[in-house]
Amino acid sequence: MTSTPNHPFALCLLGLAAALPTLPAQSLGCHDLQALPPISQQLLATAPNSARHAVRLDLPSGLLYEQSFGTFTPTTVVAIASATKTLSAAVLMSLVDSNVLTLDDRVGQYLPEWNSGARATITLRMCFAHTAGMPGNNGAISDEAITLRQAAQQLATAPLLATPGSEFRYGGVSMHVAGAVCEVASGQSWATLFAQRIAGPLQMTQTDFEAFGPTQNPRIAGGARSTLRDFARFMAMLRDGGVANGVTVLSAASVQTLLTAQTVGIPIASSPHPYLAPYGIGIWIDRRDSQGRTLLASGVGAFGFHGWVDRAHALSGTMAVQFINQSVYPFVERIQAEADAAVLPAGTACVGAASPACAPAVWLNTTLPARTGAADFALRCDRAPAGLPGVFLLGAPDPVGIPLGDLASHLGLDFAVVAPATADALGRAALPAPLVGVPAGSSFGLQTVWLSGAPCLALLLQASHAVRIDVLP
After folding, report:
1. CB 288 within 8 A of CB 295
2. CA–CA dist 141, 218 (Å, integer)
3. Contact 283, 302 (CB under 8 A)
4. DSSP character for 131?
5. Is the N-terminal amide bond of 38 cis, ω within 30° of 0?
6. What is the model's pTM?
7. Nearest to residue 331, comparing CAs of 32, 27, 37?
8. What are the φ/ψ torsions at residue 329 (nearest 5 degrees)?
9. Residue among 278, 391, 274, 282 nearest 2 (CA)
């Protein structure tokens, strides 16, 4: 065993480049999702009559996890509140794809009452990014006695609260106005647009904009109802770049725009997001990489309904629930964290198994797809002995494994110590491993070894499985 104390990671590659055979991509590999049901059971226990719910995770290869809790089923129809915004964004982007509209069209081009003063500068992009300067709420958006077009006329009489484009103010008014634009520009009702352009191609048979009953004034920002499985199809379409079952619902360019932060650097006047995340087109941008590319985006409703796209793991997720979002949100974060720990990003594959078998398995994974130049690529370790030290090792992966006492080395014997680490109180540790300067086609293996107090250990050490990293272009 050799020691390589001077990280940066590229210094540790030492001839491990592309001669190794390619391993097949895996979704979970050495990991599992057994921690998910207890998380849901804890949520259900907080309010048995209200926190009933269903959870689903999907990969491009198909269903990864689906389970219901309480009286919910995967086909229970619920009002999804502001998760509606992401459905509406898809309608808008579909019209962009059809060259009916552009995001930078002004509202006043289609609605004359909006073509005066500061209102004349408001664009559809601003409307769907909550930067149009409009108030967040107004009674017109929930008036069942008028049409969507009439609501837009009434909303034009309300004063703006800010210069368009100058601040982020979350709400439903600006999207409602943009919805009227979509109807006028297309010559079709909102219900028809959604049914023909989104729900129909995705076979979302239980999703519509009648959460509060049939209406000609649908709440563009909060009036949809859906099910776990319907919304999961929608989020999977976004995950897959606009394609579902071979049918292009949205162009890849439109999905990319929808999932790109539009509000970075814009002052926040009001936001319900617990971390004040930036906003895309009708969707929260929860996590981005060092180059500003979206890793995690979510549509979230006030009743706790969540749909998310995890681009780091090529995963989409949905939680159908009708509870208080502030109570649901921490549990969704825990579900997402478990998926992050378990699902292998592109370019990462499990090798071997944790050892010895008598000790709890230590998990090793990466945080991002292994792409050349990824400055924020990192290794993550979960379920290590809490508060105890360990080391990250680098070498050529060996699926068979070489016994070292009661441990198994899955790196062969010529491995290097990359860096020491100490697990936190939850048994987690991370090691930055930038792939800057590491050429595509490089391959190498990593494993961790930890000091442990488990009584069954002959060496007082336990090892994770290994991972093999194949650096992608």
Report:
1. yes
2. 8
3. no
4. -
5. no
6. 0.93
7. 37
8. -55, -45
9. 391
412-471 pLDDT, tens per residue?
Answer: 888 899 999 999 999 999 999 999 999 999 999 999 999 998 888 889 999 999 999 999
Residue type present at position 142: S
Amino acid code (one letter) for 174:
S
Residue that has been written with the tokens 């034009």 in this structure: 156
The angle that helices 173-186 and 148-155 make with each other, rounded to 10 degrees, is 130
Residue 31 to residue 365: CA distance in whole angstroms = 9
The string of pLDDT tens digits covering residues 262-287 is 999 999 999 999 999 999 999 999 99
> Distance between CA 54 and CA 56 in Å, rounded?
7
Q: Which residue has the tokens 């906003």?
A: 279
| CB environment 162-186: b (16+ within 10 A), e (fewer) | bebbbbbbbbbbbbbbbbbbbbebb
CA distances from 27 to 24, 61, 113, 374 (A): 10, 9, 53, 21
| The token pair that represents 263 in the structure block | 């509000």
Residue appearing with tokens 């520009």: 185
Q: Which amino acid would we find at residue 168? A: F
